[in-house]
Structure formats: structure tokens, C-alpha cells
């Protein structure tokens, strides 16, 4: 059994079962509107993605025009900084007898600025891993090239790709274990991270620590009692850390990891205690964990993390409350010690395999691999974009004569937000570097005033205050 086999174990139905900021129970205030960006035949698989210097987000994934359970190509899609989803490009159409691309593809931006996609497969019996490249932003792709070192040769596997200090690092679930290759082609530094004693280790994901350049991988293993693991894999091998996921989750879930866009830290989210709480925590490789939050009654059945701007990390998870699907989303402060108020979105899935995404530009581009049960029933990769949310405190002071001074302090997970526009009763102001704006308004004592707060890249916030 190889990495691809373990990947299929992720295909579990979302059951109606219970995920700290604590969001209240009750009606979900908003709706999530995921848009299908790629049909992938039966079910859906995770994807590789990377953002180029112009802000465009590029995706690669298995395609399956035959609608069976085997891929026969690699598709590519680009999402503009404004959120426009471009047309699918068939990066590889590999209808070759005796082999096909297989497993979760990887994608990275190379030092030259070109896109490089990696994947497993064995066309005509010739094992990969394989690579294809694009120098024009994903519009066209090269013919596949065998990029294996000779020691890393396999047919059926996920092949993740990251670039660290200019060197490509391949992370593959292969042959019952995890194999790491630094560089492309024969002679590349290659070693076995885990082996067959791990009894099918796969569903690999990886991220780069922006502070050190180290590549940290996450994977699932069936060894012993099973579990999810976190380990530095390049340029040197670090200590393996077992994620404290409750046993109710088994080993089918992939461990999605994300690094900060600046500064040290690679992170993975996990449910803290399925039986007694609904809390999600964020684990930092080599550095402890922090409470993210919970939604009353929502136990996570899928969860993920994504890189945000200024060192921030997005965290998101999905499950059901009273038979209705709920996705929870939040973003950290710059230090990754506190989190924004949790956004709750209603959307029910028949099957939900993985949650992943990228939020480097500010908004979260979230990708859901699964099959929705509302409206559309096509298995595939779905995309949803959401903005972060603000918090604010409003204090007031009577000036006499029916005049009141409002002091509005605006923050993002505790970090002050400057340049936010604040308005109340026709008066307007802008927050300073400490996140504070002051307005003088007229009104009767004990009357209620609505304060509206907007800032570029954030959702609108309204606060009420009693004078």
C-alpha cells in the first residue's frame, strides 16, 4: 500500500458530531458560497498551489476525464489577486497504456520565476517522480521529465514540492514510508524519512519556515496506534513530533501545514479533545501550541491552515451542528498568539476530504476538496474567498449640552488597525497608528448610536453604543 491508498481513507462522510475565542451556538449568520473550479471525477483529491510574484495563485490537481477512480492527467487553474478564476488548462494529458499520473501533485515557484509541478506515475512502466514546468504563468506546460534521483523512483504517490534557499525539496509518500529528495535528477540528496515499519505513511504536506529556510512536512501514519506527524525534513532532518489528535479521528486525515510569510514558524491545526470539547488548537513545530477557538456544538471533521500576511496564520475547520454543515474561519495576529472573532458559514457537504488555502494577499482563498450536498453534487475542488474581520471597543463621554465624545479603538486580533474609517450620526474619522479614532456626536442620554467601521481588505463592522 502506498501514499495514494492512504489518501483515499480521507473520503469520509461529514457526520453530525461536536470544535477558544468561543462563538455562540444558534443560527449561522452567513452563507459560504464555494464555487466549483475543477471536476476531478469520483470524489476529489487535495491539490498543489503556489502564488507568483504578481499575486496570482496557481493550482494543479489530478484530472479524470474518464470519471473512474484513476487520474489520466494534470490540470492547472489560475486565480487572480482580485479573485477571478481562470479557465482550466490541461497541463498534462497522459493517456498512456500501463501508467498514468497519480497522487497529489506538488507546485512551486522556482528561482527563475517559472512554475514547476511534480507528480508520481509510471507511463509505459517507467516510474517517476515527474516534473512539468511553465514559464508563462501556467498558460502552457512542458512535456514531463523524470526528476527522480534514482533512489526515489516509484509509480503511485503524492509528490509535494517546496523551494528552500533555491533548492527544490520533494516530499513523497512512497513504498510504505516517506522519502525526501533535495534537488532534481540523478545524484540528488535522497533519504528515507520513514519506512515500511510505519505501515503506510502518506498524505504528505509541507511548508517552508521563512525564518530559517527549513522545510517541515506533515503526514499520516498507520504505525502502531496510528497518528499524524510533523517533522523538519530539509536541509537536515529534525525531530519527529506526534500531533496530539484524539484517537476518534483515526489516521485518514491529512495534516495540512503552513509557514508564516515572514519570520520563523510552521504550523498545523488540530482538534484538542473530541470527546469533551470542541476546541481547535494551533501547533507550532518545535514551539508548543496556542488555543484558536471553538464553536459550540461543532466538532471538526476536517481542518486546515494557511499563510496570511505580516506573519499571520489562517485556521479553518468544518463539521455539522444539528445536521447542518458549518465552516469556521479565523485569522491570527502578527505574533500568532491571538485570533480574530470566528466567522461561521453554513454549507453542508456529502463528503469533505481536505481543507487548504492561501491568504498571503489578505483575503483567504480556501480550497475544499469534496462533494457538496446542497445545490451541486459534483465531486471536485471548490474555491471560496473570505475577508478577515475587525474588532472594536467604543467608549463614550458626556460633554454636556447633548454632546458626547466617542472613542473608538479598532484592532485585528489585538493588533491596532490604522487608517480605518469610523462613522456615527453623520460624523466621520480615521484611526491613528494606535487604532484610535474620536468623534463628537449629538444625542440624548441613554439613546443608542450605531458606529460603522470599514477598512480596506476587511469586512464591514457595526457596533452599538448606549450614550
Descriptive overview:
Strands 1-23-22-21-20 form a five-stranded mixed beta sheet, with no helix packed on it. Strands 2-27-26-25-24 form a five-stranded mixed beta sheet, with no helix packed on it. It is elongated. It has two domains: 3-386, 6 Propeller (Neuraminidase), CATH 2.120.10.10; 391-466, Sandwich (Immunoglobulin-like), CATH 2.60.40.10. The chain is built from one helix and 38 strands. It starts with a helix and ends with a strand. The longest helix has 6 residues, at 3-8. It has 467 residues and is mainly beta.
Topology:
Layout: H1 3-8, E1 22-23, E2 30-31, E3 35-39, E4 48-51, E5 57-63, E6 73-79, E7 89-93, E8 101-109, E9 115-121, E10 130-134, E11 145-146, E12 159-164, E13 167-174, E14 177-182, E15 189-192, E16 201-208, E17 215-221, E18 227-234, E19 241-242, E20 257-259, E21 266-271, E22 280-284, E23 289-295, E24 302-307, E25 313-321, E26 324-331, E27 343-346, E28 349-358, E29 364-372, E30 380-386, E31 391-400, E32 403-412, E33 415-416, E34 421-424, E35 427-430, E36 436-442, E37 448-454, E38 461-466
Parallel strand pairs: 1-23, 2-27
Antiparallel strand pairs: 3-30, 4-5, 5-6, 6-7, 8-9, 9-10, 10-11, 12-13, 13-14, 14-15, 16-17, 17-18, 18-19, 20-21, 21-22, 22-23, 24-25, 25-26, 26-27, 28-29, 29-30, 31-32, 32-33, 32-36, 34-35, 34-37, 37-38
Amino acid at each position: 500500500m502506498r501514499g495514494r491508498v492512504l489518501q483515499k481513507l480521507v473520503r469520509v462522510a461529514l457526520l453530525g458530531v461536536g470544535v477558544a475565542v468561543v462563538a455562540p451556538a444558534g443560527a449561522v449568520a452567513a452563507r459560504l458560497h464555494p464555487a466549483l473550479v475543477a471536476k476531478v471525477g469520483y470524489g476529489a483529491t487535495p491539490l498543489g498551489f503556489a502564488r507568483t510574484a504578481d499575486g496570482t495563485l496557481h493550482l494543479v490537481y489530478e484530472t479524470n476525464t474518464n470519471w473512474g477512480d484513476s487520474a489520466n492527467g494534470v490540470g492547472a487553474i489560475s486565480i487572480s489577486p482580485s479573485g477571478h478564476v481562470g479557465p482550466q488548462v490541461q497541463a498534462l494529458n497522459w493517456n498512456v497504456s500501463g501508467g498514468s499520473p497519480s497522487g497529489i501533485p506538488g507546485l512551486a515557484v522556482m528561482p527563475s520565476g517559472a512554475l514547476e509541478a511534480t507528480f508520481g506515475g509510471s507511463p509505459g512502466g517507467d516510474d517517476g517522480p515527474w516534473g512539468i514546468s511553465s514559464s508563462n504563468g501556467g498558460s502552457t506546460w512542458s512535456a514531463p521529465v523524470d526528476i527522480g534521483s534514482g533512489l526515489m523512483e516509484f509509480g503511485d504517490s503524492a509528490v509535494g514540492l517546496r523551494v528552500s534557499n533555491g533548492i527544490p525539496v520533494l516530499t513523497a509518500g512512497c513504498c510504505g514510508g516517506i522519502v525526501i529528495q533535495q534537488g532534481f535528477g540523478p545524484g540528488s540528496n535522497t533519504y528515507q524519512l520513514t519506512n515500511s515499519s510505519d505501515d503506510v505513511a502518506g498524505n504528505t504536506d509541507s511548508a517552508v519556515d521563512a525564518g530559517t529556510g527549513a522545510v517541515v512536512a506533515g503526514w499520516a501514519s498507520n504505525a502502531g496506534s496510528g497518528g499524524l506527524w510533523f517533522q523538519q525534513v530539509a536541509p537536515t532532518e529534525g525531530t519527529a513530533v506526534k500531533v496530539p489528535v484524539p484517537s476518534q479521528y483515526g489516521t485518514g486525515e491529512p495534516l495540512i501545514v503552513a509557514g508564516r510569510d515572514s519570520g520563523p514558524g510552521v504550523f498545523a491545526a488540530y482538534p484538542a479533545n473530541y470527546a469533551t470539547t470542541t476546541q481547535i488548537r494551533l501547533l507550532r513545530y518545535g514551539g508548543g501550541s496556542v488555543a484558536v477557538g471553538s464553536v459550540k456544538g461543532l466538532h471538526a471533521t476536517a481542518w486546515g491552515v494557511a499563510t496570511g500576511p505580516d506573519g499571520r496564520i489562517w485556521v479553518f475547520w468544518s463539521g455539522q451542528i444539528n445536521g447542518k454543515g458549518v465552516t469556521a474561519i479565523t485569522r491570527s495576529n502578527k505574533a500568532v498568539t491571538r485570533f480574530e472573532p470566528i466567522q461561521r458559514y453554513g454549507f453542508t457537504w456529502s463528503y469533505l476530504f481536505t481543507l487548504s488555502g492561501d491568504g498571503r494577499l489578505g483575503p483567504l482563498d480556501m480550497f475544499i476538496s469534496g462533494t457538496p450536498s446542497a445545490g451541486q453534487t459534483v465531486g471536485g475542488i471548490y474555491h471560496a474567498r473570505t475577508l478577515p474581520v475587525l474588532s472594536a471597543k467604543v467608549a463614550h463621554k458626556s460633554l454636556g449640552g447633548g454632546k458626547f465624545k466617542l472613542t473608538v479603538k479598532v484592532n485585528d486580533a489585538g493588533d491596532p488597525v490604522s487608517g480605518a474609517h469610523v462613522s456615527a450620526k453623520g460624523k466621520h474619522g480615521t484611526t491613528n497608528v494606535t487604532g484610535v479614532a474620536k468623534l463628537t456626536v449629538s444625542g440624548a442620554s441613554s439613546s443608542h448610536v450605531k458606529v460603522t467601521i470599514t477598512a480596506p481588505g476587511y469586512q464591514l463592522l457595526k457596533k452599538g453604543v448606549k450614550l
